[in-house]
Write the structure tokens for this entry.
Amino acid sequence: MMKKEILTILLACLAMAGSFASGETRPEWRTKSYPNGQPRMEGYFLNGKPVGDLKRYHENGKLQSVQTFDGDNSTVEIYGGDGVLVAKGAYKGIKRVGLWEYYASTGELFMTENYVDGKRQGESLKYGPKGKSQVMDRMNYVDDLLEGVRVQYYDYGNKMAEYHYKNGLLNGAYVSFLDSGEKEEEGAYKNGKKDGVWTYYDYEGTFRQIEYKDGKAVNQQQLDKELQQQLDANDVDPKLPDPEDYLSNPDELMQLIP
């Protein structure tokens, strides 16, 4: 009976040894280093694929990323050269999936994106210094292209601008606002270019209108002429005396200049 038990144990050990030898069940520890000797990558691999935590490092020795593998799926945290968290999210194979979060150098969350099969899909948000309670930019993606309404906000909550996108290009109505809440610009885009009549406002409530076609002002020559006239008028202030008229009496000139 004892001989039979010993034989059974020996056979089990031989089977395990054979399995390890084939490389099917024993992970292999691998490392890579920079020329300066600092670690570059380290982790376990099984049949050529990483398992568990795979760590990568910056050349200064700071952690660059920790990617945790579970078959073809993985989650990752990415760090800057100063060791501060930059982003975190998930992969299916080599494609991004699910919610990805991005962080500022100060540690606050500043942007979120959603991925499906490696492409941005759905709502994407950018935040201010206060994090999720302070949305600064709200946009929507379809197959990695901007689609629909995009709204930007001032840091105190007032709307800054509203755009409309189709297939990644500006298409449709556009309006922007002054920090006071009054309109600043209003018009429309067609295939990413200004189109039709645009209205421009100032803080006094006055406005001017310019008509665009294919992104260019229809009366561009007239606009260029008006701009040049303004520049020319600013070159010489008629209120300022001409020094040549006071060469014989410079003291009088100095009294005239404010």
In short: Residues 2-21 form the longest helix (20 residues). The chain has three helices and 20 strands.
